Amino acid sequence: MSKVSILLLGAGGHAKSCIDVIEQTNLFSIAGLLGSEQEVGSRVLGYPVLCTDKNVKDLLGKYQHALVTVGQIKSPELRVHLFQLLEQNNFKMPIVISPHAYVSPHATLGAGTIVMHGAVVNAGAIIGDNCIINNQALVEHDVKIGNHCHISTGSKINGDVHVGDGTFIGSGACVRQSLKIGAYCVIGMGQSVLVNCEPNTSLPAFRKTL
Prior knowledge:
Blueprint: E1 4-9, H1 13-25, E2 28-34, E3 43-44, E4 47-51, E5 65-68, H2 77-88, E6 96-97, E7 102-103, E8 108-109, E9 114-115, E10 120-121, E11 126-127, E12 132-133, E13 138-139, E14 144-145, E15 150-151, E16 156-157, E17 162-163, E18 168-169, E19 174-175, E20 180-181, E21 186-187, E22 192-193, E23 202-203
Parallel strand pairs: 1-2, 1-5, 2-4, 6-9, 7-10, 8-11, 9-12, 10-13, 11-14, 12-15, 13-16, 14-17, 15-18, 16-19, 17-20, 18-21, 19-22, 21-23
Antiparallel strand pairs: 3-4
């Protein structure tokens, strides 16, 4: 089976992690990356940074598939912008799943979502478009995650939790079952979330007192 050529929008640290996952799938051939003006002409893990996102229309005739590979911590704004840019230009955004992750056949994933090494997405989970399910994250049964969310490394989202669009769940955070976390929340590293969170809630990273 021939590999599908794909463009990556973003040329930073998260892009390197995405490249590693994409290579492991053996399904795609990375044509190159789009980055900042300063990054154009450089290489990321051997792949060329071709141009900036201002030139994305010029590439449509050559390539049909693309993925947003910019990271997300505080705000999903840039990832949303790039996803919409690809939508407007009729690019296809595949779902990318690491062969070292487990995604239940009874789960549903949206366009442009990437599931990274060691992650688990369990039965009945529904994950929206353009999400990052990062290394070793756990998304339990019947969880609903909106569009443009980042479920960060080692975080645990327990059963029946609802997570709104654009929300970031930090590394090692744990969300109690059946809670609702609103849109555009920032849940800091190591937080234990025991109550519902209204939209735009920000919980700082947990700091252990020595």
